[in-house]
Each structure stands twice: as structure tokens, then as C-alpha cells.
Amino acid sequence: MAYADAIQEQREQRRRQRFATKSMHMTQKYLHRMRDLGGTLEQMEPFFNALERIYVQGLDVERPRSTKTVGTYCVQVPQELIYAAGARPVKLCSGHYTAFSIGDDVVARDACPLVKAIAGFEHMGTLPLYENCSLMVVPITCDCKKRIAGLIKEKWPVHPLYVPANREDEDIEHYLDDLYQLMHMVSHVTGQDVTYESLANALNLTGYAQYELSRFLRIKRTTPNLLYGTHAMAVMNASSYLDAGVWASAMGALNDELERRARANELVSRKDLPRIMLTGSPIVFPNLKIPLLIEEAGGMVVADETCMGERGMSDPVVPVDASFDGLMRSLAIRSLRPCPCPTFADNSQRIYRLRQMVRDYHVEGVIYHVLRGCLVYDYEFRLVEEELESMGIPVIRLESDYTDQDVEQLRIRSEAFVETIKLKKGPLKANRG
Ligand code: SF4
Ligand code: SF4
User: How far is the CA of 119 from the centre of ligand 2 (A)?
Assistant: First the structure.
């Protein structure tokens, strides 16, 4: 290697090292803030450890050495298909500020920060979670997501997954065709065919996770204030980096403890704090500043309608018939029909789900989160605002970016919103249980 090249290489190495160190510190800061809220339980540690493993220790997901990982970028990529081919799905949507600051110089100025953070990790090449993927499945949904496929195709094999804008029968057929192609592609990567048995096993595996999730949601609905919403969101985010069975088993232990605490009336806060629902653009770890600010301001995030939260896993697969095609078809239907993502043309479903969640969780105010540049969610705001106001539920739009610079402004607005709800409710009683 020529001297100049060697110097350049050393410089690049130092730059990558600085990036890795800064990324680690940013993650640690959010893990600390999460713990400083109080109310963390021993049973949450497996989830926090999974987040720490990836972003602080810089390790890949835990798995047998021979198991390949497949990166996905949306809840509309059915994980079951990847498990059925013998691989591990990992969700790569990113909430990392340090990666965002690199991606900001790499992709279009007005792209959303989530995509910029993905670009930052791709560019720096320091995170094993990304680097070790054998295949990337990119959904063709919003414009920003579409661009990822072009951005990363030099580095990894990419399957751009067709996602229709409508959900009529013919749209489902097109999507199903693409799922079959994806199945062949993952099988090619792993060398394992997807069989009836492996697909059924994968459905059972994710069904186990969905069962524990439904328990978790029921406990949260029936006994409020058993845990902070920020912690619930971190637990949900950790599902991106844990095997579905491992996540479900840890969830089972957490649910058992929450049920015990519900019986003993052991709550993490007084019962009458303002009950807030979060919806809008994805909230991806470590970017938990919005739920943290709400809960640091004295509100409770009781419900989370974002695609890294409850939405990501809550809809079960209901087999249309017992054939192989029947299982594939049910995966396609589950991935599209109930999904309240606003990238679909008809969003009446989304409104219906939001109304239902407001009622189920006795929500008193909604924070509509918009990541800067995320037009799909921004467009929806007016419609959601009108619907919620017709129910007498106050709503505010909070726009944020992947930086700490907007924290103080967001804090002022979150505090003012929480105070408004408190005033509407009247004096809070000083009870903890
Ligand atoms: S917001 Fe929609 S397109 Fe984006 S990850 Fe979520 S479900 Fe997928
Ligand atoms: S839905 Fe919004 S946040 Fe997600 S990739 Fe598209 S523009 Fe970005």
C-alpha cells in the first residue's frame, strides 16, 4: 500500500473509532435516562441487555453461529417467512443520533432522520448488526424507504418488497407473489427450503410472542400505571434484536411479575397522572426522547400506536386454510389488511384503531409525533386531530429530529400539554396505589 493510502486508511479507522465511541455514549445516555425514571423491574433486564448488547457493546444478535440474519425495515415484512427459511430477522430501522449526523451528509437533505440514521450506519460500517446481514428486505412504502434499497444495494443483496397502496384482493395477490419470491430468496441465502412444517413452526413461534404481547397489553389496559410507557416501548423495541421465542419467554416472566404487582397494587406512580397516547412517526431506540419527556413532565404514556410498538406484532395470523398456500396467503393478509400505516391510500382503519385505543386505555390526551421530513405521518395529522377533537380528546403535534438540540423546546411543549390535561382533570389526588 502506498504511504498516502496507508495514512488515509489510518485516518478512516480513527474516524470509525470516534463514531463507534460517540454512538456508544449516546445509547448509554438514553439507557441511563430510562432507568432514572424509576420503576424498572428485574424482569425488564433481558430487554435492556439486548439493546445494550447491540448499541453499547457493539455485538451482533445472539444466535447459533450457523444462523444467518436477514435485515428488515418495516412491520410489513413477515418475519415468519424468514424464520421458516432458517434465518433470523432483525429490524434495522434506526433511532440513532450519531448515525443520523453522518447520514445527514450522505442522503437528500429533506429525507427523514430514520433513513439518514440507516445511511449513517451503512456508511460507517461499524455495527455488526448491519454488517453481518446476509440479505436486506426493504419495503417499497414511503419515498424514504424506497431510497434505502438504492442506497444499500452496493453492499448487501437486497430484496425490495412490493407493498401495495390498496388492500383489495388483487393487491393482496400481487403482494403474495412477491412473498413467494422473497421466500425463494431467503432460502437461497440459507440453503434451506421453506416447507409446510417449517412455516407452521414459524407461525407457532411468532404466535407465542403475540400471545405474550396480548397478555402484556391486557395487563396494561386493566391495571394502569404498573409500568412506565417509556419502559414498555423499550421492551417492544428489543423484539427487533431477540429471537421471537426468547423475547416471548422474557415477556412471560415480565407479565407474571406485572400480574403479581397488579394484585398487590404495586404501581410505579400515582393513579391519576394524565393518560397520554403516543402516535405518529416510528419511535425507534435509542430515540426515546418523546416518551421520556412526557413521563419526566408527569404524564403517563399509557398507549403507543407506533409501528415499533404495539402495532408491530399485535395482529395474529389467521390461516385461511390448512394448505401451504393458505398459510402464505394468511401471512399476506395479516401483513396488509389490519396495518394502520398511513402509507396506504385508505386510512379509515387507522382512525378506527386510534378511536378504539383511546377508549380502551382511557386516554386523556394524544401526542402526535412527526419526524422531520416524514410526510406520510404529517399529512395524516389534520384528519387525526379532527377525529380526536370530536371525541373531546386534546391532541398536539410534536415535530422532532434525531438530535438533542430540540429537547428543551419539546420539553416545554410536553410540560404545557401535561399541565393542560391536569387542569382539565382538576386537582390530582396524592395517592400512589
Ligand atoms: S411507518 Fe409504515 S412504512 Fe414505516 S416502518 Fe412503519 S409500517 Fe412500515
Ligand atoms: S414512514 Fe416516515 S419515518 Fe418511516 S421511513 Fe417513511 S418518512 Fe421515514
Answer: 13
